[in-house]
Amino acid sequence: MSVIEVNNLVKQYKGAKAPSVDGISFVVEKGEFFAFLGPNGAGKTTTISILTTTLSKTSGEVKIAGFDIDREARKVREKVGIIFQQPSLDPQLTAEQNIRFHACLYGMCGYRPTFKMMPAAYRKRVLDLAEIVGIQDALFKPIKKLSGGMQRKLEIIRSLIHTPAVLFLDEPTQGLDAVSRRGLWDYINDVRNQYGTTVFLTTHYIDEAENVDKVCLINHGKIAACCSPEDMRNSLLRQELILDAEDRTALTNELTALGLPFTVNGRVIVPYQESAQDVISRLQTRLTVLRIHEPSLEDAYVEFLNKSGRDAA
Amino acid sequence: MSTLVLTRKQSRVLRELNTVLTVMAREVTAYLKSPGAAIMSLAMPLVMMGMIGGNLMQNMAGGLGFEFGQFMLVGMLVNMLFMITSMGMASMVDDHDIDFNQEMLVSPVSRYSLVIGKILGSAFAGIVSMAGTLVVGLIMGITLPLGKLLLILALSPLMCLTGGALALIVIGLIKNRKAANLAVNLIVMPQMFLSGAIIPINNSSGALMVFSRLMPMTYCLDLARAVVYAGTPEYDSVVMFNPMVNFAMIAVLTVGCLIIGTFFFARSEKNR
C-alpha cells in the first residue's frame, strides 16, 4: 500500500525562471525507508516542504496516507512528523518547553505550566527520548545555551514525540557527532520496527542511505533514478579487484592474454561482473596485493552526479 | 526504547482550546523571560498616561462638559491594550525568521487557534500595561470604581482580540522586523488619535468621522466608556453608540479582521 503518492509534481517559486521541482513522480510504500538524494539546490527540501503541507505546489497531485495535501491538509498533518533542515526551535524557551509545545499542539496531552504538572506518560516519554539521544542534562536549559548538535537532538525528540506514521527527515544528522548519529539511527530503526513508521530521508551523508529500501536521485528538479540502493550501485558501477605483483609487467601481460580489461592507477584495477573468484583463479602471477572493492552507494551517487553533469554540459 | 506511547485523546474542540492555551502560554513565558519587554510595557503608561495625558489635562481639558481625567484614563486603558497587543503581534516576524512559524503550521490544528493564541498571549503584556496605566492614573489622582474596572478587565480579552486581529492583517504579510515595527505604528497611531482615546470625537465630521467609524478601537472605547459612565449625567455627552451597536461592530470587525489576517498569514508562509 502506497503511503506517499506523488504524481507530476511541479513547484516554481515566485519570480524564479525555472521550476525547482519539475514534474516528479514517485511512490513510497507503507513502512518503507525511502531516501531522496541529490546535490544542493536539486529540489529535495522543496519537495519535503510540499509533502508536509508547509509549501504550496504549482501543479501536480500529492497524497499522504491516502489524503490529498490540498483538500485534506489537516489529516495529512496528523500523519506526518518532520525534522526541518533549518532549526525551528524557540530560543526563548527551554528544551523541554519546546517539546511540550509540540506535544500539546499535536493533541498528545493538555497543556500544563510546568513539566512536573504534565501527565506521567508525557514525562516518561520525554525522559526516555532524552536519554536515547543523550540530552537528559540539557532538558531544562534554555535553547540559547545548547550547542548546535544538542539543538538537533532536541528537534529529533520533538519530531518523534507524537509517533508519526510518516517521518520526514530533512538532513537530520547535520551537525551531529558520530556517536549521536549512530544512536539516532538505532532509535529510528527501532521506531520503524515497532510502529511500522515510513521514513522519508534526505541527507548529504550518503552512507546513511545504504540500508534504505528505495532511493530516488533528484537533480535539477527532475527524478533521475528511483530504485533499490543495490540496483543503483549495480547499474552505475562495476565491482573491482585491486591487484599488484612484484612483477607487475607479468601480471598485466597475463591479464591481457586472458582478455580481462584493467587499468593501472597506482595499482592494477580489474573490473569484474560476476565473481571475483573467477578472475583470481585464472591468474598464475604471484600477487602481493589483492583487494576487492565493493562500490558504495556514495560511489554510485558521485558517479551519477558526474555523469549527469557531463550530460548537462 | 520506551513502549509507552502517548495517545491523542482530546476532542476536536478541546484540542483547539488546548492549542490556544499552549500558544498563549508560550507568549507569556517569553514575555516573563524578557526583562526588556516587561520594562517596555511598564514604561509605556508613564509616557502615554503620565506625559501625554498629563499635558492634555493641564492645558486642554476645559469646557468639555465632563471630567477629562476619567475620560482619558479609560481611553488610555483601551489604547494600551491595543498598542501593546499590536506590538506583540510583530513578534510573528521573529517567529518567521527562526522558522518557528513552520513548526506551528505543520501541526494538525486550526490556523485560527494558532493566531488567537498568539493574540491572547500578546495581550498579557497589554494587561500589564493596563495595570501600569491605572497606577499612573492613581498617582495623578484619577481613579475608577472597582466594579467598573473589573467589567473593563472582563472585556479586555475581547478588545485585545480586536486589536490583535487588526494588526494581523498587516503583520501577516510582512517578513521584515523593521517593516513590522513601522506597520505597528501605522496601525496604532491613527487609532489613538481618531478613535477618541485621548481626544473626544463626538464632533468629528467629514473624512475624520468616516475614518473614526472604521476603527475597531472606536467601538471598544465607546463600550468601555459606556460601562464606566453608565448611570451618570455625563453618559450622553461621552458615549456615542448604544452598547449593543458597539458589541455588534466589535464582533463584525474582529471576525472580519481575523479571517482576513489569518488568511494572509497562512498564505504568506505557504505561497512562496
Key terms:
heterodimer; A: 313 residues; alpha/beta; Rossmann fold; four-stranded antiparallel beta sheet; 14 strands; elongated; B: 272 residues; mainly alpha; 12 helices
If you had to describe this structure to a student in words, what would you say it looks like?
The complex is a heterodimer of chains A (313) and B (272). Chain A has 313 residues and is an alpha/beta fold. Helices cover 36% and strands 26% of the residues of chain A. Chain A has two domains: 2-232, 3-Layer(aba) Sandwich (Rossmann fold), CATH 3.40.50; 238-294, Alpha-Beta Plaits (2-Layer Sandwich), CATH 3.30.70. Chain A contains ten helices and 14 strands. Chain A has a six-stranded mixed β-sheet with strand order 6-7-8-3-9-10, sandwiched between helices. A four-stranded antiparallel β-sheet of chain A has the order 2-1-4-5, covered by helices on one side. Chain B is an all-alpha fold and 272 residues long. Chain B has one domain. The N and C termini of chain B lie far apart (40 Å). The model of chain B has no long low-confidence stretch (mean pLDDT 89). The A-B interface holds A 13-14, 52-56, 74-75, 77-78, 80, 82, 84, 86-93, 97, 100-111, 113, 121-122, 124-125, 128-129, 132, 142, 161-163, 187, 190-191, 194 and B 1-10, 14-15, 18-19, 21-23, 25-26, 29-30, 33-34, 98-100, 102-109, 269-272.
CATH superfamily of the largest domain in chain A: P-loop containing nucleotide triphosphate hydrolases
Q: What is the CATH-assigned architecture of the largest domain in chain A?
A: 3-Layer(aba) Sandwich
Q: Could you say which overall geometry of chain A the principal axes of the C-alpha atoms support?
A: elongated
Largest interface: A-B, 51 and 38 residues
Q: State the secondary-structure class of chain B.
A: mainly alpha
| Residue fraction in strands of chain B | under 5%
Task: List the total number of helices of chain A.
Answer: 10
| Unreliable sequence segments of chain A | none
C-alpha Rg of chain B (nearest Å): 20 Å
Mean pLDDT of chain A: 88
- Proportion of helical residues of chain A: 25-40%
Low-confidence spans of chain B: none
Total helix count of chain B?
Answer: 12
Helix content of chain B: over 70%
Separation of termini of chain A?
40 Å
- Could you tell me how far the N terminus lies from the C terminus of chain B, measured between alpha carbons in angstroms? 40 Å
**Number of DSSP strands of chain B?**
0
| CATH level-3 fold name of the largest domain in chain A | Rossmann fold
**For the largest beta sheet of chain A, what order do the strands appear in spatially?**
6-7-8-3-9-10
